[in-house]
Amino acid sequence: MSEFVSKVVTVEDMRGPVGRLEAVLNTGSDAAKFAVVVAHPHPLFGGTMHNKVVYHAAKAFAGFGLPVLRFNFRGVGLSEGVHDAGHGEQDDVRAALDWMAEQYSLPLLFAGFSFGSYVGLRACCGDERMRGLVGLGLPVSAAGRDYTYEFLAKCGSVPKLFVSGDHDEFSPQGVLESVLVKVQEPKRVVWVAGADHFFAGVSQSPASKLDAMSAAIRGWASEEFAL
Fold this sequence. Notes:
Blueprint: E1 8-11, E2 15-16, E3 19-20, E4 23-26, E5 35-39, H1 52-62, E6 68-71, H2 88-104, E7 108-113, H3 115-124, E8 130-136, E9 141-142, E10 145-146, E11 160-165, H4 173-180, E12 187-192, H5 206-225
Parallel strand pairs: 5-6, 5-7, 7-8, 8-11, 11-12
Antiparallel strand pairs: 1-4, 2-3, 4-6, 9-10
Helix pairs in contact: 1-5, 2-3
């Protein structure tokens, strides 16, 4: 299929529990089957909705003609509020999901990168509107913070995709494999060869790793949802 080129607009009316959430929307096709929300990495370490991994993930979904929302967590950019160590950020994800559901009345897909994957998957697991979940660079230990994933059991039989670099400094491959082996099917785990946490190249150009990550998303979405 040829890739759909969507219009990108600024969202002015999305609000979370502590105020406005800055966001941009790929508007998608009138024939879209799903609406997508993508969440960014840790705000205290430069994470925003304009992060390269987040952008490429959103572009992968938008290429199918799906509407895709990227937003800044509280305290980032023009989003109101202050960082809440991953607690209030779960409510920010829920606010983004609610906004997309109201705008499009479509079943939802979610993708998050690093901190955004941890926070977002926590918010999404068990939400009956969700039809697919993507964790990119799922962190296990970073900057003195340990992340646990017992909550993934609540995700049930929703299709799940996990994509990480095999040189991810925050998720050693063996450690993350021991986490993901407990996750219920259907699931797909993709290791991008030679990529670090940010899908930058250890041995080749950064673009090639981001392309591999995007290809994993497109392949999974195409096969799971007949896009």
